[in-house]
Amino acid sequence: MSIIINKTNRTEMKTPTSPTPREVIIGRMKKHKGLIISFAVLLGLVLVALAAPLLAPHDPFKQNLLLRLEPPVFLGGSWNNIFGTDHLGRDYLSRLIYGTQISLLIGFVAALISAVIGTIMGVSAGYFGGKTDLVVTFLVNVRLSLPVVLVALAVVALFGGSLFVVISVLGLLLWDRFAVVTRAATMQIRNMEYVAAAEILGTKIPRILWKDILPNIANQLIVIITLEMAHAIMLEAALSFLGLGVQPPTPSWGLMISEGKPMLFFEPWLITIPGVALFILVFAINMFGDGVRDVSAPEGRN
Predict the structure, then answer these.
(1) Among 14, 96, 103, 290, which has the highest number of CB atoms less than 10 A from its own CB?
(2) What CA–CA distance (Å, rounded) separates 76 from 73?
């Protein structure tokens, strides 16, 4: 009988196991309202972009001059064109829905190109040091001396404002932040014991960079990707507004704002609707990046 009691007491005295790092991060994510809200908004916009052909009530390219400048429903317009029509009679809601595809595509692909270029340069400079670091630092300084908007305007004006050109230009101009952050983070990780142990065991450098360095700077990369994605979307809208971005009749939010500019004082909703959509997208991306930074920080933030 005493043996059974002793076993019971030992069982009761066991301490609960500590949560794993993944469980800690998931717990922080559940408590971070900003991250949850921004993720829901971004997920909704991505679904809208993917299901644009199903959600758009009309063809975004179809013109009908008899219905030009129809006001939206909340200003007394028809339910057939909920957000009204533009100066060529095209359904504004349909163009707004398809414009989500353009903004997300440009933002994501441009940020991805920049991430690849900047991460390779930053990790190389931080790990190898020496002449490699000097070359990368020089290239970063050269890039920082070039005004992004002016260079983008010059390149787009020279080669044309196609979607491919806009994405390529933005992707090749926004890598500097990736290089600076990954260089500093790699320099810190370079002196860690597990990296030294891998080198002593004869592990090849590409494997060290891929298995030991990159996973430990992933949270910084995610935050920078969200920032540069929002930056790329705003730059595309600025280029389209100036007439050097995505060209008509592609439904870009920046182009919609540009086309509505002449009627600003008579039909302000032509600018307000795409402007609000652009604000929501960029704000949600920035808010999501802040949330990722908070939940992935070692000390955690509220």
Answers:
(1) 103
(2) 5
CB 217 within 8 A of CB 126: no
Whether residue 5 is contained in a domain is answered as no
Round to whole Å and give the CA distance between 52 and 103: 13
The residue range of the domain holding 187 is 31-296
Q: How many domains does the chain have?
A: 1
For residue 139, tell me if it sits in a domain: yes
Note the pLDDT tens digit of each residue in 214-269.
888 888 888 899 889 999 998 888 888 887 778 888 888 888 888 888 888 888 88
State which amino acid sits at residue 154.
Answer: A
pLDDT of residue 278: 92
Residue-wise pLDDT tens digits, 167-220: 889 999 899 999 999 999 898 888 888 888 888 888 888 888 888 888 888 888
Classify burial at 141, counting beta carbons within 10 Å of its beta carbon; exposed 0-12, middle 13-18, buried 19 or more. Answer: exposed
CATH code for the domain in which residue 216 is found: 1.10.3720.10
User: Which of the 8 DSSP states describes residue 17?
Assistant: P
Joined together, the tokens standing for residue 294 give: 């908070």
> Taking a C-beta distance cutoff of 8 angstroms, is the pair 90, 268 a contact?
no
Under a CB-based contact definition with an 8 Å cutoff, are residues 245 and 252 in contact? yes
> Is residue 78 in some structural domain?
yes
pTM for the whole thing?
0.84
Q: Which tokens sit at 192?
A: 């860690």
Question: Nearest 10 degrees: CA dihedral of 143, 145, 147, 152?
Answer: -30
CA distance 95 to 85: 9
